[in-house]
Design goal:
This protein is α+β, with helices and mostly antiparallel strands. It has helices spanning 28-42, 50-61, 82-103, 136-142, 168-175, and strands at 2-10, 13-20, 67-71, 109-114, 123-128, 149-153, 158-159, 163-164, 195-196, 204-211, 223-231, 236-243. Strand 4 and strand 5 (123-128) form a beta hairpin.
């Protein structure tokens, strides 16, 4: 029996999603049960969610040498709403881009704006690529005029209130932990959980049909992050997520 298999390759992060196929001879009840089996299992594995998309984007474009940046506001500098916070973000990104452009250096970033946890004050989280410029960190600090800037290399320490970020999963979860539509906030409809620079590398996606029981090729030194599934008389679903190489911490 054939099964549908999707493989997603994002840098050193790889995901394999395999599910049963509805057959022409299936009864209406069997088709309904297969769909139900798939839906239940995919709740935790749906790669279309913001967190899963971001996880893949980060793995494709960043490494442990790049920066995790937290930007806060001094008293009297706080934005009135999310729209104004977004303008501050755009100004900051423009200043970095202009400075790097003069030196012929690239800029790659992912950004999230938060305000609903802690004391409920607006602040920003960003992942920004390092370029080997000697004063790289000092420049990033100096270009934010509204308050404090905390910068550290990825996977190097705990963030914010002591959370430990050791993988792309942790980082994407941290940057999407606050939905714009939640809480009392003047958030325009349709705003995304995060934004990113243009031209970022996208994961490689391969879809194929395989015979049931065809093993997933996992390198012997891979780090398994998730390996779960569901199977019954009506359907099959399995989701495997692993690192083909460890994330090297500085």
């Amino acid at each position: 029996m054939k099964r549908r298999r999707k493989t997603i390759i994002a840098g050193n992060l790889e995901k394999v999603i395999e599910s049963s196929i509805q057959l022409p001879r299936d009864t209406p009840q069997a088709r309904r049960d297969k769909r139900k089996t798939s839906r239940e299992a995919k709740k935790a594995a749906n790669h279309r969610t913001a967190q899963e998309h971001l996880e893949e984007l980060l793995a494709c474009n960043f490494s442990s040498r790049d920066y995790f940046v937290t930007l806060t506001y001094s008293k009297g500098e706080e934005p009135k709403n999310r729209r104004e916070a977004k303008k501050h973000k755009a100004q900051y990104i423009r200043r970095i881009r202009d400075a790097r452009r003069r030196r012929g250096q690239p800029l790659c970033w992912v950004w999230s704006i938060e305000c609903k946890h802690g004391k409920g004050r607006y602040h920003h989280h960003a992942t920004i690529n390092a370029v080997g410029f000697r004063e790289d960190i000092e420049e990033l600090e100096s270009l934010w005029p509204f308050g404090n800037v905390h910068i550290e290399t990825l996977f190097n320490a705990g963030h914010d209130q002591g959370e430990t970020i050791n993988s792309w999963i942790d980082l994407s979860r941290y940057m999407t932990k606050e939905r714009p539509e939640e809480g009392k906030d003047t958030t325009p409809n349709g705003w995304q959980v995060y934004s990113c620079s243009r031209g970022m590398k996208k994961p490689i996606v391969k879809a194929e049909y395989v015979e049931a029981g065809t093993p997933v090729t996992i390198p012997p030194d891979a780090i398994i992050l998730l390996n779960e599934g569901l199977e019954n008389q009506y359907g099959y679903f399995h989701y495997t997520k692993f690192l083909t190489a460890p994330i090297v911490k500085k």
